[in-house]
Write a structure and sequence with these properties.
342 residues, alpha/beta, six-stranded parallel β-sheet
Length: 342
């Protein structure tokens, strides 16, 4: 059964849940507040109905005349690499000029965690929501579709947004990097990245990358994946593994700059000529890596701009202003020192 959409954006009430569950509003209230003596079967019936409707209880009902707090919920997957801290910095810089205050929730790329974070944050009736990505569970989409707050999904444009969206085409970013690699004559290409079922943006870049290679008659020659945070040590370890397994690779494409930097450090420590013998490229354009002995080729995903524009949309909508709800930014290829062959 798919979640029901609320086209009028009328705030859902206890009555809606009680009608859907076939129980009284008092019972619904007891279940959602985890109070009173309610049977397990009834509790399950109520929570299922609330989840399908996308109902989120209003924890500030009766406390504020406006039914809003000056908080902007910002839901991101991780703070373990530099991408989302930089997005958060830009969001904060914009909101600092307004009465609004960002509050962060993290999902660790888990759809179930995203549901629980959304439920908690929306229950406080924030003035807006900024959330990473376009892929969400049915329950999360239902909550957002029925939330009477401005919503901006960020980082990705390849999908169906709920409200406003700001980002780059991840598939385009992967495709353009592949085209640059092919243009330099590289043909035996290895890929290293995160396990992608839950990292949809990395998956889309990989799809764009492999599609562009396929058009040139090239297949990925080898690949290596990891779980956990993006870190230099993982990049070093994976690069060592893949080059020992496939020593004839002439290019390594990393799903992010941090593991790419680890790969570069491994190559330099082992006297592997970069880019003469092996070319390297990452993704994100992380400024932290500017001090490396060689500048890693990468694609700047415009994360500072994404954060700034998303916050501006929320601030404008909170003031009742009409704004552009789809903002596409262009990923910028940075050739660095590891892609152009000497």
């Amino acid at each position: 059964m798919s979640p029901q959409h609320n086209p009028s954006k009328r705030p859902l009430t206890l009555r809606d849940v009680s009608d859907a569950a076939g129980v009284s509003e008092m019972t619904v209230s007891r279940v959602l507040r985890n109070r009173g003596d309610v049977s397990d079967a009834t509790r399950l019936k109520v929570t299922k109905a609330a989840k399908l409707l996308g109902y989120v209880p209003n924890k500030i009902a009766g406390a504020l005349a406006s039914q809003r707090v000056n908080l902007v919920a910002v839901i991101i997957p991780s703070m373990s690499n530099m991408v989302f801290p930089e997005v958060m910095t830009s969001i904060s810089e914009v909101l600092d000029e307004t009465p609004l205050q960002p509050v962060i929730g993290m999902t660790n790329y888990s759809p179930e965690k995203e549901e629980s974070v959304l439920f908690e944050m929306l229950s406080w009736r924030p003035s807006g929501l900024i959330i990473a990505g376009l892929e969400h569970s049915d329950a999360s989409r239902a909550m957002m579709q029925n939330a009477d707050v401005p919503i901006v999904e960020i980082m990705d444009l390849d999908g169906d947004p709920i409200d406003a969206v700001v980002g780059v085409s991840q598939r385009r970013a992967g495709r353009e990097m592949a085209e640059a690699i092919i243009a330099q004559g590289y043909r035996k290409i290895g890929f290293m990245g995160t396990n992608m079922p839950l990292d949809h943006r990395a998956r889309k870049r990989f799809e764009g990358f492999t599609e562009a290679l396929a058009k040139a008659g090239i297949k990925i020659a080898d690949q290596e994946f990891y779980s956990g945070g993006s870190a230099l040590v993982k990049g070093r370890e994976m690069t060592e593994t893949i080059l020992k397994r496939s020593p004839d690779l002439d290019f390594l494409y990393y799903s992010n700059d941090m593991i790419g930097a680890g790969g570069l450090l491994y190559c330099l420590a082992n006297n592997i000529d970069v880019p003469g013998k092996v070319g390297l490229a990452g993704f994100n354009g992380v400024e932290l890596l500017d001090g490396l002995p060689k500048q890693l080729a990468t694609m700047d995903a415009e994360r500072h701009q994404i954060g700034r524009i998303a916050a501006e949309i929320i601030a404008a909508k909170a003031n009742g202003e009409q704004v552009e709800t789809r903002v596409e930014l262009t990923p910028r290829l940075q050739l660095g020192d590891t892609l152009i062959r000497p």
